[in-house]
Fold Biotin-independent malonate decarboxylase subunit gamma.
Amino acid sequence: MQWQDLARALFGEDHRIRQQGELLAGEADFDGGTLAVVGTTGHAPIGVALALAQARVVLDTLRDHPGRTLLLLIDTQGQQLRRQDEMLGINRAMAHLGCCIDLARRRGHRVLGLVYDQALSGGFITSGLVADACDALPEAEIRVMRIPAMARVTKLPEDLLTQLSQSNPVFAPGVANYVAMGGVRALWQGDLRAALAEALASASPQDLRARDGAARGGRRLAQSVIEQVLAA
């Protein structure tokens, strides 16, 4: 879905979201309040400049509008694979973005992520997965690592990883698997405006991903390990 169509479905004409290159930023009126909106479009690769631009929007919201809800619109192919960005410290820029989102949560801002098209690798980890909750459209594409790349990192055969992905969502891409693991809280279908209202009403600063993953059978041990550590 194009971001313009999504904005229209969510807010009608009551938004002031603007595109600057691959950056989306602005605000929208919703249910008697105003949301700050920041995100990306065009399967954006997240480089140093784009990460810092998003972080700037988040920090400006904290300074100018304390407590205002943040909506992250996610469409990214992951981090920018370019030597220039590596030399400039892409890892630190993306970590800075994640820290700004975390700071917003700590300051009492509700932060909701929505994957409306594509979410890959580090571009997703430092945005939607840092939010209070991350939802997605059913047609979204989500993955952190392709199986061939996973095979190179783990030194396990691709055939084995493919076999494991049939029964274990941790090894498999796809939005349904991220729902099973708890990384995506819910899929928005039908009335997107009603889905946003429900998502905002149920947003919690408590991280429930491991609990949801255990309940859905996608991450069977994470929650029990957390409980054991807390009890130690």
Observations:
- The two ends are 47 Å apart (CA to CA).
- The chain is about 45% helix and 20% strand.
- Residues 3-204 form a domain with the 2-enoyl-CoA Hydratase; Chain A, domain 1 fold (CATH 3.90.226.10).
- The chain has one domain: 3-204.
